What does this fold into?
Amino acid sequence: MRSGSYITRPNRTLQIYACVFLVVLYVPVLFIPLFSFNDSIYVRFPLQGFTTNWYVDLMGRDAVWDAMWNSVRVGVCVAVISTVLGVLTARAITRNRIPGQNAVVAFVMLPLVIPGIIFGVALLVLLSRLGIPLSLYTVALGHLIVCMPFSVATLLPRFEGMDGSMEEASADLGENGWWTFWRVTFPIVLPGIVASLLLTFIVSFDEFIMAFFLSSTETTLPIYIWSQLRFPREFPSVLALSSIILTVSFVLVFIALWIGRTGLIEKDHPRPPEAPKS
Amino acid sequence: MTSSNPIISIQSVGKSYGSFRAIKEISLDIEHGEFFSLLGASGCGKTTLLRMLAGFEDVTDGAVLIDGEDMTGVPPFLRPVNMVFQSYAIFPHLNVTDNIGYGLRKQKLPKAQRQEMIDEMLSLVQLDGYGARRANQLSGGQRQRIALARALIMKPKVLLLDEPLGALDKHLREQMQLELRRLQQALGITFVFVTHDQEEALTLSDRIAVMSGGAVLQVDTPAGLYEHPRTREVASFIGHMNFLEARVTGRKNGHATLDVAGLGTLDVPANGAALSTGDRTSIAVRPEKLRLHHSAPENGQRAVQGALKMTTYLGERSHFHVEVPGCDRPLAVSASNATLQDGRANAIGQPVWLTWAADSLIMMNDT
Ligand SMILES: Nc1ncnc2c1ncn2[C@@H]1O[C@H](COP(=O)(O)OP(=O)(O)OP(=O)(O)O)[C@@H](O)[C@H]1O
Ligand SMILES: [Mg+2]
It folds into this structure.
């Protein structure tokens, strides 16, 4: 049975390729939740039996809750700041004719490809030179660098997809730049902003290298996990914690992508005229 | 057509993008309540000029006065003009009611009064009952009307329209042309209308400015432009036109004596041309102003003889090409089939005679 147009017709080869790709990518990851429910402190087959003890054990630890709270605080701050900066950047890139626009975009995206360890070490050296003590603030600073590309990459298509004459129409109807932003620009790019908030939060929440270099005694969740890896008896709890983080990350990223795409796909095509309802 | 207080006064306005002169010294006055069109080919600077009136583009030199006030440095949101964008720019996140009421925020009206104004606008553009629709639930023509209503509710002194009908199909375009004209006459607001469609401009406008290469070539009424174009560029832009080479052989108060290729010596109104004896120029004549005869006219009327090169039957009209000795190109003649003497005798190569009314020859200001 044939369905869809030439472009949307299912392609068997591509489907198989996609499945293989996803399996190779995610099967190793699936072992983590699998063993987190395994009633043994050794990660090996055969499985010993189902238990939720590792999770219960986790809930009883103050250090986990502290690290979690730290991660959430850093994540929220980083998400808000990087999204605000992302909005300003995307708006500047798309609306104003600035010289060397592509260079600016490339520069903002650079942290995606530069190893985190380089940024981490560089920031560490800089901060210690300046005599700034390490804290959650310095972690947040590091995360900001890591998160900016995600924020800009999420927001840029939103701003690019927005007809520039929308803002002009608002100005024409008597609203200055401030009101135009809140009444027109912000609502139109809102899905992008929400997506950016979710995405940057989760990137910060999961980030390890920057936090490793820049945190003091207050640790974030990934650092806590790493510190527990030294104790073999703790390993199942680490798996349990990792499973939780994995699930939350997956859900948030999924929501972010879903929201970020709303309205981008359903472009408003004019419909043929029909009779009014009333 | 100049009065003491034009609603818009464009004074030696120029616009440069870097080294490129998009607008070259335009001076224009637009009167209260006028339907004024900017007509010209693509890229001639119509949009640029309109955007300078709205305040979206800075004026490089000169000044724009709206209702007597210098608009230099006045941002768009403080100008007493509103614009209908070519893309309509309907806000996608608002429904029709909120789109139309968008500009009313500062007036802080009671809700009922605001709704009343919006409903009034909706019925003005004949979209009663569409208030709850969203932008993506509207057809192109409906968006067009919403864009109009949204601008008109602001009670602007001038409404600026940038090719508002460009995206509509032919049938809808003609319908909207009538509607625009009706609205403009009912409200008495000055319209500045950009179009590259000469027919549209002729149908709608009180006056038209024909633009080319960033300059205004001629400002006149539709009939004035059609009957008395001053330059070849204007003449050929509006309707069809035959051009005949000519040389000035004499001038006397408002008339010029010309030696016209193919037609001989003629006396025509100078049409404002500042040409003197010996200058080369050309004569323009509309195809429908030439009359075709199958025999030499007997009443002593001036005529030229030529040979029929081509005939095209178009139902209501017929088009002919007539080769006249001395003219480098055949002359186009258009005649209503109702008045043709003998429709069957139009064989190729057959000798024909052309006559013209004295006032149908238009002297051009350039060659
Ligand atoms: N921002 C800009 N930078 C440089 N040149 C520009 C800019 N905007 C317009 N131009 C140039 O100015 C000229 C006039 O443009 P404009 O948009 O006013 O033309 P137009 O008469 O409206 O044409 P159309 O009928 O195609 O809309 C064009 O040659 C265009 O390339
Ligand atoms: Mg244009």
